[in-house]
Amino acid sequence: MWKFIIDGGWLMLPIFICSFFSVMIIVERLFFYFFSVSKFKSTLILSEVLECVRKNKITEAIDICKTKSFYLTNILKAGLFYCDGSREIVRETMENASLCEIPKLEKNLNFLSTLAHISPLIGLLGTVVGLVKCFQNIEEVTAVAGMVNPSTLAGGIRVALHTTVGGLCVAIPAYIAYNYFVHKVNLYVREAEIAAVELIEVFSQSSTPKIK
Fold first, then answer.
1. What distance in Å separates the CA atoms of residue 96 and residue 80, rounded to the nearest whole number?
2. Which of 81-85, 113-117, 183-187 has the weakest average pLDDT?
3. How far from 162 is each of 21, 94, 128, 176, CA to CA, in Å?
4. Worst-scoring range by mean pLDDT, 41-45, 154-158, 184-188?
5. Is 77 exposed, middle or buried, given 0-12, 13-18 or 19+ CB atoms closer than 10 A?
C-alpha cells in the first residue's frame, strides 16, 4: 500500500488529505451525532409532550424537552415557551428554532460532498500529469535509443493510473456516506415538521394553555 501511494506521485498527498477529512466527518456524523440522536425515541417523547399539553401541564412538557434534549425537543420547547400566544406566534417560534437546529443536522455535509467530488478529479489530474511525463520519457528514450521497451511504457501508464484509483477509493465511500446522511437529515426534518404541526393542533383543540 505504501509503495502504491509513493508510486502515485505528489498528487497522492491531497488525495490522502481528502481521505483523512472524509473519514473524520463520517465518524463524527455517524457515531458522535446521528448515533446519539437515534438513542431518543422521538415518537414516544412526542406522545409524552403532547399528553402533558392536553392536560395543560406545560411546565412538565418543557421539563421533558429539557431532560431529553435533541433537535426535535429543542424545536418543541421553543413553541411551548410561547404557548400563551397565538398559533401564528407558536409556529413562527418553532420555525426560528428549526433554523438553529437543522444546520446542526447538516453540519459538514457540504464539505463531505465537496471531498467526494474533487477526489476523483485530483486522481484524474494525477493520471494526466503522469501520462504526460510518461510520454515525455518515451520521447527522450526514442530520441536516444530509437525504440522503447513496451514494459517501460506499460509500467509508466500503470503508475500514472495510481492517482485515479486512489481518488475513486476516497470518492465512492464518501459519496455513499453523504447520500445516507442527507437521507437521514430529510427524515429528521420531516419528523420535526410533523411534530410541530401536531403540537399546534393540540393547542388549537384545547383551551388557551398556560405555563404552570
1. 13
2. 81-85
3. 20, 51, 11, 22
4. 154-158
5. buried
Report yes or no on 196 lying in a domain: yes
DSSP, collapsed to helix, strand or coil, labels residue 40 as coil
For residue 147, give its domain range: 2-205
What's the whole-model pTM score? 0.82
Whats the size of the chain, residue-wise?
212
Residue owning grid cell 464518501: 174
Number of domains present in the structure of the chain? 1
**pLDDT one-digit tens code per residue, 90-133:** 899 999 999 999 999 999 999 999 999 999 999 999 888 888 87
* Residue at 212 is within a domain: no
Question: Rounded distance, CA 187 to CA 151, Å?
Answer: 54
Inside any domain, residue 85: yes
In a domain, 191, yes or no: yes
Alpha-carbon distance of 7 to 153, in angstroms, equals: 15
Cell representation of residue 113 = 460532498
